[in-house]
TrEMBL record:
Annotated GO MF terms: pentosyltransferase activity
Domain DUF7846 stretches: 538-709
Subcellular location: Cell membrane
Pfam annotation, one family: PMT_2
GO cellular component terms, A-Z: plasma membrane
Domain Glycosyltransferase RgtA/B/C/D-like: 131-247
UniProt organism field: Haloferax litoreum
Domain of life: Archaea
Regions crossing the membrane: 38-56, 123-144, 156-176, 230-248, 260-280, 336-356, 389-411, 431-451, 463-483
Topological type in the membrane: Multi-pass membrane protein
Assigned keywords, A-Z: Cell membrane, Glycosyltransferase, Membrane, Transferase, Transmembrane, Transmembrane helix
GO BP, sorted A to Z: lipid biosynthetic process
Descriptive protein name: Uncharacterized protein
Lineage: Archaea, Methanobacteriati, Methanobacteriota, Stenosarchaea group, Halobacteria
Amino acid sequence: MGRRGSRIPDIDLDLGFDVSFDHPFSFDFDRERTRHRAVALVVSLVVGLFVTWLAVDLFPFHSVNDDEGVYLTQAAMLLDGKVFLYPGALADAVRPWFFVVEATTSAPGGVQMYSKYSPVVPAMFALGLAVGLPNLVLGAVAAANAGLVYTLTADVFDRETGVVAAALLVLSPLFLLTSATFLAYAPATMLNLAFAVCYVRAARRDSSGYAVVAGALVGLAFFARPYTAVLFALPFIAHSLWALASAWQAGTGWPVFRRYVAIALPGLAFVGLTLAYNAVVTGDPLRFPYIAFAPLDGIGFGRRAILGYDIVFTPTLGVQTAIEALRLLVTRWGPMGWLGTVAAVVGLGLTAQRWWRHRTGRSLRGSDRRRYHGLGGRKRAFAELSDDALAAILLGVFVSVFVGNAFFWGTHNGLRNGLIDLLGPFYHFDALVPLAAFGAAGILGFARVLRRLAHRRFSASEARGVVFSVLLVSALVAGGVTLDAAGDPYDENRLRTENLAATYEPLLDAGFEDPPLTPSVPAVGTGGASDGNDETKALVFHPDPYGDWSAHPFQTLRNDPGFDGPVVYAIDDGAEQDFTVVDATNRTPYRFTYRGAWTGAVDPVEPELTRLDVLSGDRVDATTTLGTPAGSNTVSVRVEAGDEYARYDVPMGETHTIEWDITTDGVRVTNYPQAAGPERVSIPSGASEVALLVTYVGDFGETVTYRQTVSVERSGGDVRVVWPPETRVCRLTTDCGTEGEWVGPDGEYLPGVSVETNATVV
């Protein structure tokens, strides 16, 4: 194979001279190798630090891909030694995004939950959580990927090319943005790359040790992301079969067979571990958790569905999606955007020419010539994993990733929901490896051609100036192309981060996650229920614009695995659930809400955090004082409970004070005459919602409505009321949502609008 750094033979470009990746032999070879390794280490550390900075600066509240919260929740579970969550009575209010809910008599509280994802990547993130610095794991994974790309590229070309390939990763928007998130794509690539490096050493050194490690790594990659691991491994599997067939024909089959058995056995052991994990969580070794979550979210064509979204995924749609992903990667998201793709094509061309020269035996040293033209010839060289063979495998990875993902509808889904616009075609993350390797070969090929041309036509000093000038201009062009490619996704992610920061501001100011100043009784039993008083801890009800999910979209609001941390976050989803959660946690309740439409943090919202009280007694007397909106001529008051309502006549004035009370007999307004409905609107037994609506009408029929909604529970001779009510103000409708005007303690959003409210227990 020749020396490291000297295996790429001279390449004749018909320019009257040779372009060589070789370094002349010298006694300084070890020093040069050490220098390259040191440079590669520095590059890898820079890549890792840059990704860590991005994670801290650009994604302090995580990206809009809410799968991050899933992995981090699972990481926290692993630190607690949990595979399942046991929420007990809180199940409906705290179900995390992408968790499967399973009723079982063997679980405490009768309910258990598990993630749709494998525990491998969460285990990596758990290392960072354990020391309180989770972002360092992202930087470490990025640095490891850069170092492994250097090593693998050096195995194909030389160490200089490996250094450039590692540096190209920091010029790839896909690599940077995806690596800075708590998602599985970069960690899975790290496992795949580590397998590839060990596979090369096992083949070239005939090392059983490296073979065992390679098998364990590819098996672990399969446990982490099965389909991703299979696609990456397919070209290596093809080479293994070729090597075995060639060895048997040459009569040397047993040593080669032993090597690949050493790879296969630990790999199969991890496949068995994957199936065992499936059996534990889903009850069926062949039923993966992601299939248990969404049975039609799998590989292949036909009807595909997840959470209410379904399509018929046809081969045509698969090919169209793969082409679109390829276009995005090679023009914008890969290293240096389209310029990096041009460099990769050049590098692939140089590699093909190298292969042709090997095939014809030109420019080969004695040992290499015997390797290619002796016993077994080129077939033997491929079987023993020559540089050309490894280059073919690397190209095969690129093809395998794109062809394989054409059978998976996930990319189509990512294009539809906009995640790929923000983070790139992340399902094709492994394709960055061949792009960086061949791109580096193309860049160095260009630089060496330039250097030799300059030295042929200019003096030594002039040649250095010409080379420096051309390379400087090229670097500036490359930087401009890269910034242009990364600019839009960076700005879009920055916008969302700023809006998320504003959204979470009242929660951060409250400091719920800080250690309590006074000790509290820890939760005992199941499902976060407590037999003590946890009132020094918080319970925060939050909205659910995407459905009944915790940490979706507010993935920063994640619960501790035991639901016994300083704060419990619960979905605000009706009176019955409100009282169930309040009783199960016995904490100080708060309501987190916002004004505006939730658009995935594209548009800002106005958040509010309100301290709640649970009032209990024979009767709750409430007083609501409202300002009259400008231009109003008439006003009406209405109370609603269940299917009944009562309406009251109210004279016009600058303000209106409505006195109303809630008892087990019902709800009524006490200071205005009744116009319609029963004297007291009855409240259903158990938990329900009671609403007070005050509607003002203007000259042209336009309306402004105040709507106050309270959760009420009627039990025996007492009522319980969650106070203060949710207050909304909206125009042209009485069914006010978050999109309408909302009055908080600091705001007046329409002229004349204001709200004051109070309640006492009698």
